[in-house]
Records
---
Amino acid sequence: MKVILSTGHGRLHLVQSATWLRKLGLNVRVLTGWIPKHPDGLLVKLASKIVRRDLTSGMKKRLVPELEGCVRTCPLAESLDTLLRVACRILKISTHRVSSIGWTIFGLASRKYLKDADIFHCRSGAGQGGAIKLARNRGMKILVDHSCLHPAKCEENLKDDYARWGQEIVIAPGRGVWKNVLKDCEDADMIMVNANHIRDSFVEQGYAPEKVRVVYLGVREDFQGVKKNYASHGTFRVLFTGGFIILKGAEYLLESLKILKERGVDVAYDVIGSVGAPKALLEKYSNLPFKFYGVLPQDNLKSHLANADAYLFPSLADGCAQSGMEALTAGLPVVATYQSGLPITDGENGCVVPMKDAMAIADKIEWLIAHPEERERLGKSAAKMMREKYTWRHYAENVRDLYEELVESGS
């Protein structure tokens, strides 16, 4: 079986997908954006100045030795997309105006590599510009890889919160790249999503249940069981990792901390990741004991997971949040919403709280503080579940099964 896997701009989880699929013996070729030979070089430094962020770390992650010789790049397409975004920043207009163009250009550029394969496994958004159409004309089955709620459900969950803080909503149907995303999903033979609630959101929008399949992502093995000591000494430390934005429940996380402090609970929150929450939101809660550590390498993250007492992820519209999966794998007791996409069952291997309910979050954190034996039970149960069901090998085997089903359906 021959597979072409298109990541679109960036890498998402699809580089790990290709790596593990090849370990199973599958013939996988990867289409992606720019991969510089020298991620510390002058060209990357110049690009970093243009986009106003350091690209070195991200570019290093694109250099995967296991994929050497099977990667084809579309650097011009990604460069044009970046320039369009920079132009929007200079002109102070929304990037939604150009994001669809940038992804369509990628799909168009990828066409020259679409040959001699059985499966076209495409990140949602990267299949337009004629890519999916050409792949199908050349006899390939189309698997579209989608990683978040249906845009209509995202808009429903997020619109009030983004309006309240004066921010532009990030995901909505009919806007920017989400037009490409939905067209790819419509054109697919099968859509692969990474959490049950994503599948449910597509079925709600009229998609046939058999067309939308769930395959949860894997987690690096070195995160397994890094949490060893469940005793809490002094201030109870709650950890959040990932982008600290409205979508991830930043407001309700901070409000829950306020409630706990008003109750006199000795607790503090640690946040690791980029901070994109509105300035006014951060200022509202600035007197609370929370600390931002910024973006850290994953190897440095493990010590924070080992030392935290609990993990909190109150997302409003996520896919299978990799940061939360890492916390479960590490063995932390996790408090999360159903909308986080995490594969937890309340009371068995984690704690599920209602979306946008800061009081419920505070109650659950206070309960964890009062029940150390339950913290340990939940954490160890989570680590066991992740070790037995959610490794990258499990992921690759499940994807391979979908490939085989697709190929057999056309025979």
---
Amino acid sequence: MPEGWNLTVNINGQRRGDMHTNRFGTTWFTMDASIAKTLFNKTLTLKLSATDIFNTANNDWTMNTYGVFVNKRQNYDRRGVSLNIIYQFNPQKSKYKGKTASEAEMKRL
């Protein structure tokens, strides 16, 4: 990405299958993404985010416990968009100029 830009994509999901007395019926995945831009020497950050972009979140399962069957079919609409504006007052660069502790520890061994 060009200087000051940051792109993030998160994908989460589950395949159908069995767990103990539960049978999860539907394969699902969700995808979230965000893009951020830093401005003014990293004092201002603008971030635009979107959640569940493809509207695929659901909760379908069947439970069989001692002959009692429970079926659940539920679709969520978790899609959303957000804009974050972050301003850092008096940002300072790191003043640490020493070596890392791991380097010193390796030399000691």
